[in-house]
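Hi there,

I know you've been waiting on this one. I reran it after we fixed the sequence typo, so this is the corrected version. Both the input and the resulting structure follow.
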Amino acid sequence: MIGPSSNAAELIAHLETLRSEENVPSMARFGIATGGALGISNPDIRAVARLAKKDHLRAMQLWRSDIREARLLALYTVEPKRLTMEEARHWANDFNSWEIVDCAADLFVAARLDELISDFAADEREFIRRTAFAMIAGAAVHLKKEPDATILAWLPLIEAHAGDPRNFVRKAVNWALRNIGKRNLACHAPALALARILAESSDKTARWIGKDAVRELAGEKLLARLR
């Protein structure tokens, strides 16, 4: 039986018993990197994480396995308050899937590693740049006590990278812009203003990001909720 005292090798051995090869093709269809994947669903990995509890050093060992499920387990069981910038950068070098990126982005926000956002946005690697905007999207929702000025300060970064046509980047840039606009009324107006500027851009990607964001941010249902 696995539990808080289980080491990385024991947890990986347990994950092997949950292997489901028939799930791997469907994961690939959703754009999940399946090299080293065991085919275990996220709810099942989270169930293992609940039994294993948090353990920072063990999470570092799990990450080094190169197994998709072990890396997700590492993200679910690491201790955010102990996560350092160096460790986060080291993990980011291995990012190869939007799924891992989006889980890690939530973790990095919880660990308050906000300084990574501008660095990751400047990185040319697709999944590292996506991490920056996934972090912004998460921060806009989860950092409820953070001053709005902190959140709005990321809008120029969104504008600067709105022309990146790579699928996993452009979707994350769009996501970040929409989430800032949905945060509250104070954030809504600047986000919608930027969305309208992008919607008129001569750049195809920026135009798509802007039009899609305008469609949501200018909706009456959202405005009614924010008021």
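Quick highlight: The first helix runs from residue 8 to 17.

Best,
R. S.
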